[in-house]
Amino acid sequence: MNIIKLAWDNLWYNKTRTILNMILIIVSFVSLMMISGYNNFSREGIITSINASGGSIVIADKSYWDKQSEKINMLNSNDFEIIYKQLDTINEVNDYQKKLDINGLVGNENKSKFFSGYAYEKPSKIMSSVSLKAGTPIFDDDIDTMILGKDLGEFFNINYDDTPYLNLMTDFGEGISLGSLMAVGSMSLNNSSADAITIYCPLNSVYEVFSFEYGNAHNLLVYLKDYQKASEIKNSLNEYFNSEKLPYEAKDWKDLNEFLLSVIDMNTNNYLIALFILSILVFVSVMQMLTTNFLERLNEFGTMRALGINIKNVTLLLFLEIIIMAVLSSIISIIISYGASSVLNTIGFTIKFPGATDGYPLSLLLTLKDTVLIFIWVLSVSILAGIYPIIKVIKMPIIEVIKYV
């Protein structure tokens, strides 16, 4: 206990040098916490959005996934019954719904434009993942409504209070189909390209307006209680389909969102690069400061050696000084990091990516895991940085050290 007190007193004997060391560690610690928090927030936001809108698993006929296939076979009511029966045996399945891809031309008496969109069995579930800009959302039991991307609605200069109808021309694989749907609102997908062409509508509207065969759809979106089990359940489903010689194939959210996963990987790589740079900076700076500090204290070490204090105790004392400084700096850093995160989350500062129609509130998601890992990193780098100056001091011949007494 006395040696710990001595290590503490030694740290504050030269307050300026100790404080400078601590500031370096604190700045590095807080920087990594901020980068980590932003990375976690972006990752969780992207993954949550993917799973909320597109499902954790998508099941379709094998021809749907085959880019070389000339014709895509839709799933009919019998297909869905077979799939439903299997899904009902999986406890992790939370919900599922049919989805139909639609694309073609949309227009009125004045102009027209290419569109790409989707018809959902439960559009109300999808509406929770988009930003409604004007009008009203679409509902599950609607039979003639649709909602447009914000820019697409502006292209037609639509006043949603007038409940305007737009004409749609599309092809479901059996020839051109024509129909009219009422535009009840506009939404933002936070992407200018998507907002300029996207349409969402209830699947019931397609059945009623286009006389599309009831029950048919391109695929089934499966929502899981835990998206992390998507790959496991996807593999299980595909094994079942293959063993029963069924023409279906399942893909998980990772298979279908390679670009967004690359964005997550890019953020993670940026974090690792920052970690590497800060590791070098902290290591070199702390080592230099400790070396200077220890060499200036040779009279102190000489006195200890002259009094016969064991070299192991001298080494332990020096390491304790480093550990105390690193731990104290880390505690202060954690308080600053969580305080800054709370303030930033309260302010609601928004950022906007290129091509985005809306900004989104910047938030930091700090986790206990990252906090512990960064603490271990700070402690490890500080100890490693202290090895050289400590070895330099303890290896000096006792005659050389004593002359500083």
For this entry, give a set of tags:
single chain; alpha+beta; six-stranded mixed β-barrel; 15 helices
Brief description of this entry?
By secondary structure, the chain is of the alpha+beta class.
Outline the structure in words.
With 405 residues, this protein is α+β, with helices and mostly antiparallel strands. It is 55% helix and 20% strand. The chain is built from 15 helices and twelve strands. It has helices at residues 2-13, 15-54, 62-65, 77-87, 123-127, 150-155, 192-195, 203-209, 230-243, 253-256, 258-296, 298-306, 311-347, 368-394, 398-402, and strands spanning 57-61, 93-107, 112-120, 131-135, 145-149, 165-171, 176-188, 198-202, 219-224, 248-252, 350-351, 360-361. A six-stranded mixed barrel has the order 2-3-8-5-7-6. Strand 6 (165-171) and strand 7 form a beta hairpin. Helix 1 (2-13) crosses helix 13 (311-347), helix 2 packs antiparallel against helix 14 and helix 13 runs antiparallel to helix 14. The radius of gyration is 32 Å and the shape is elongated. It starts with a helix and ends with a helix. The model has no long low-confidence stretch (mean pLDDT 84).
Number of H/I helices: 15
Question: How many extended strands?
Answer: 12
Characterize the largest beta sheet: strand count, sense, and whether it forms a barrel: 6 strands, mixed, barrel
Strands of the biggest beta sheet: in what spatial order? 2-3-8-5-7-6
